[in-house]
Structures are given as C-alpha cells and as structure tokens.
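Input sequence (456 aa), recorded before submission:
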Amino acid sequence: MQQNNQADVKLDRNIGLWSALSLVIGTIIGAGVFVRQSAVLDEAGSTTMGLLSWLAGGILTLTAGLTIAEIASQLPQTGGLYVYMEKIYGEIWGFLSGWMQIIIYGPAMIASLGLYLAILLSDFFGFPSSWNVPIAITAVLAVGLLNLLSNRYGSIFAIITTICKLIPIAALIIFGLFFGNHNALGQSISDVHASTGNFGVAILATLFAFDGWILVANLGGEIKNPRKLLPQAITYGILAVLAIYVLVSFGVYRAIPANQIHELGTNAIPYIATHAFGELGGKVLSIGIIISIVGCMNGKIMTFPRIMYAMARKHQLPFSKALGYLHPKSHAPIVSIVVEMVIVSVLILFANPDRLSELCIFTVYCFYLMAFFGVFILRKRNTGQSRVFSTPLFPLTPIIAILGSLFVIVSEIQSDLIGVLTSFIFVILGIPVFYYARKKRAGLSTNELDIDEEID
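Predicted structure, token format:
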C-alpha cells in the first residue's frame, strides 16, 4: 500500500454533537431492550425490582460515563480507551487494551449483531436458516463499505437509524403508559420463587444492555471541539438511553402481566406490538429492531477500526504502514476497516461470536476499572490545571463506577471461571506481538515514525 503524501492526509474533524450523540445512543441500543425484558424480570422476581434493576444499571453506567468524560476531555484523541490506558499506565497497557478490542471483542460483537440481524431478516422474509451466515456477512460488509466513505456518511446514517429505532420504542412506551391496564409496580412472578430472584444478576443483565457507550471516544480525532463535545455526547447519550430503557420496561409491565412476560420470554415485546397494533404492528416492530441492530452495527464498525488505525500510526502492529493508511479523498482508515471486516467474517464462518464476546466482557471491565482509577491519577498528575469537564460529585461518582466494575468482574469469575481464564489467553497473545512491533519500530528512522495528532 503506497502512502504518497500521507503526511498531508488527516482524519476529518467534522463530527458534531448530534452525530456523536446519535452514535452513543445507536451503539448502545441494539436488541437488548427488546429481548432482555423477560430475563431481567425473571432474575429480579418482580416488576418493581425489575424497574429498579434497569435504573440501577443505568446509574452505574452513567457514573462510568461521567468518569470517562473527564478523561476524554483531557485526552480527546483517536483510540479512546486505548489512548487513556497508554497515557495513564504506559504503552504496553494501552496496547493490550487496544489489541483485545480489535482482535476479539470488537469483531465478536459485530459478528454477533450480524448473525442476529440475519435471523431476524430470515424470519421477516421467510428465508431458510441456511442463508443466515451469508446474510450476516453481506450485511456486515455492506455497512463496512459505507464506512469506507467519509465519516460524514457514517454519521448521517447513525442519525437516521437512531431516529428510526426510536419510533417503535416510542410506540411501545405510549401504548404501555396510556393503554396498558396492569400495575407496573408490585407484580411478582408466581412461577419464580423469591429465593431465586437475584437483584445483582438482574443488574448485570442490564449493564450488558448499556454497554457500548465508550466507543464514541474512539472518534476523538474526528469530533469537532472534542474536549467539550465528547463529554456532552457521552453524558447526554447515556441519560437518554437510561430514560428509554426504564420507560420501555414500565410500558411493558403496564401492557401485559408479569407472569405472561415470563412465559413469553424473548417474544414478550413482539406479542405486545401485535396485540396493540395488529399484524402490521408486529411487522413494524420487526423492522424497528432490524434498523436498531443495523444502527448499532454501524456505530461499532465506525469506531473499532479507529483503534487499529491509532495503534498502527504508532507502529505498534505488524503491517502498520498499511493499517495506518488514510484514503486521500475519504480520509477514512480504509485498510483497518477492511481488515476488521475480514476478522468479523471469519468469526461468523468458523466461531461462536456470542461466546467470544462473553469471554471478553471480563477483560473489558478490567480495563474499564483501570481507566476509572485513572481519573484520580490524572487529577494528581495535573494538579492546578484547569479542566474543560470535571466529573460531578467527585470522588463519589468514580468510586461508584469502580464498585460497579468490580461487581461485574467478581460476577464473571463466579459464573464463568473457565471463560475468564480463556479471556486472559487472548490478552497474553498480544504480548509477543507488542514486543515484535517495538523491536521492528526501533529500526525505523525518525522520518518514518508518525507523530501523534495534535488536538485543538
């Protein structure tokens, strides 16, 4: 890959607040709010505790977002968490956090979305299940091709899909609030004994539905005035999703009784849509979920390759010269995007993406935990310096975020120790790659080494 005049080609800094906000909301809201209602209610044991679970998960996520927002305002560079880990703890920690995200976690999440989207499309159009894998790969590649263009198109697509997915969500909320005839509070599931209701596990289920809020930080080098807009997008985006999730759950509990939600499982919301709006309503909801997943996929495809690009710019990966290439017209990291799509396609063909993404949850939250501690380190390191954004209620907010991450980490160890140990293998595999790339980088001349992007 030739890099003619690459020094003059920069990422386009044209993502505004609405685009960034749409990416936060769109990347968080996939299928979780539609399919996890029964799972959360089953663990919580009652509608009251179910609502509190969604609220608690949202508050924990908000504390995490507010904590990272302060770091993002100080380090608003392309790469997000990868950059934060490197600047706070050193190069190898940044590399390992980035390595885990670009090799396994990100591709597995995108592949899972692609496969679930294929299942919905097959059900909607009556395709045979044997078509699921080709449909999934086609969908992933189509969204990937969109992101080979200027980030302006990915941003516009994020706004459109976010608006579209909010329409069926609003319909569900309005129907439940104004036409539901059940009490949203106080209902218990008679088939589930109180002893089996686990509030902590219910919160854990909602936390996974809130995951993805941090990915907009990967676009720090492409956001207008990132020191100001990044914290705003993260904060307002999480608040919006929190309100949506609680209102959807409240509407569902109003629409049908708790026992019926339990019996219907993942079909609870489709049943409500069909019951409320007829067969057409069920179809519209299916389209809404499909659009929701496509929008979520777009956000992840837009953001994860930026980590690979940022690592390549620092010559931390094999073939860094190619992976750090920006197209001279679209100013998109096209090679990193293509490589990420190839990894995703391989996972769809030969692996279980759901299982891989579950395995990496533990590692992701370990890096989250370190990042939350990082806000204390930066404050001590930068004593006396002014900040564009400061975490509200400091130090209580980051402490709650830290406790939330510890809760997820301990829960993962208790429920899936083999998976936790396996996730370490993925991280450890990055260590020899790091030292190989560093040794190769040592042989480069000063002119061949890229310089970190300047931040206005």
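Checked by second reader. The domain at 6-448 is CATH 1.20.1740.10 (Amino acid/polyamine transporter I).
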